[in-house]
Write a structure and sequence with these properties.
alpha+beta, Bacterial Protein-export protein SecB, elongated, SecB-like_sf, Preprotein translocase subunit SecB
Length: 151
């Protein structure tokens, strides 16, 4: 089946920061998958766009098991990336699609790029590759809006 390209284009992606540590678990007989799912995950992001919303800049930071108060043995991971996106509006699109392309899709693409980087940097680690679980993008956006309203 022939693929149709999205009006949303990722123009540029840069890895801005990465940090990986390993603290050996107390027991060598450990279920890696269970340990990985117990890790706390924090995601923060900042979106900036041009006045005409044709170009979007998004910086996304993911911390896995990286807060001292929650630190579990195993991996501690921090990655941050920046992306620039544009929307080609040469064809008509409804507002629902445009909203999706401006908010949900760029954040989802950034998280997926950073997920791949986290897997790559941990893949040769003692516990094998860490694959970030699926993330509820709607909840992340809702939490960000609430955070901004509170400030």
């Amino acid at each position: 089946m022939k693929a149709k390209f999205s009006p949303l284009q990722l123009l540029d992606f840069k890895l801005l920061e990465s940090h990986f540590e390993f603290l050996a678990p107390e027991s060598s007989d450990i279920d890696h998958k269970k340990l990985f799912f117990s890790y706390p995950v924090e995601i923060d992001f900042d979106i900036n766009s041009t006045e005409d919303n044709k170009e979007i800049q998004l910086i996304t930071r993911i911390k896995v098991n990286a807060d001292e108060e929650y630190k579990l043995r195993g991996y501690k991971i921090l990655v941050e990336g920046g992306g620039t996106f544009s929307i080609n509006e040469s064809e008509k699109m409804d507002e629902g699609l445009k909203t999706n392309l401006l908010k949900f899709s760029p954040l989802n693409m950034m998280i997926n790029n950073l997920r791949n980087i986290m897997y790559q940097i941990t893949n040769l680690g003692p516990l094998g590759g860490y694959l970030l679980p699926p993330i509820d993008i709607s909840k992340l956006l809702q939490d960000k809006i609430e955070e901004q309203e509170a400030n």
